[in-house]
Amino acid sequence: MQFNHINHQVIEHNGNPLFVLIPYQEYLQKFQFPLKEVYFPHEVVESIALADKTTIQAWREYRNLSAKEVALSIGLSEAKYLQIEKMKVISDNQLLAKIAVALNVEVEQLTLED
To answer: Cα(76)–Cα(87) distance, rounded to whole angstroms?
Structure first.
């Protein structure tokens, strides 16, 4: 009979599982650490928090770009881009990636949770 070695330990209280301990290296692999740090300049955070601007609008203004410049670089009309810029959440990952390139930021810097 062959036994598989289990590297996990379950901690229970009154018969109910509360925690599972796993080896540290397995933890790092499963959760893909180290996590990428996301940087937000003070001006961007201030625009979002105090001026109630969307993250995309705050970054565009921080980069000193016009809405027309960004719209042209991603292949949209200025009017359509401005509609998108006002949205709090954008679920189109391809569009977010294009906007991130136009603003010279990481996608994660555009998806700040409110």
So the answer is: 15
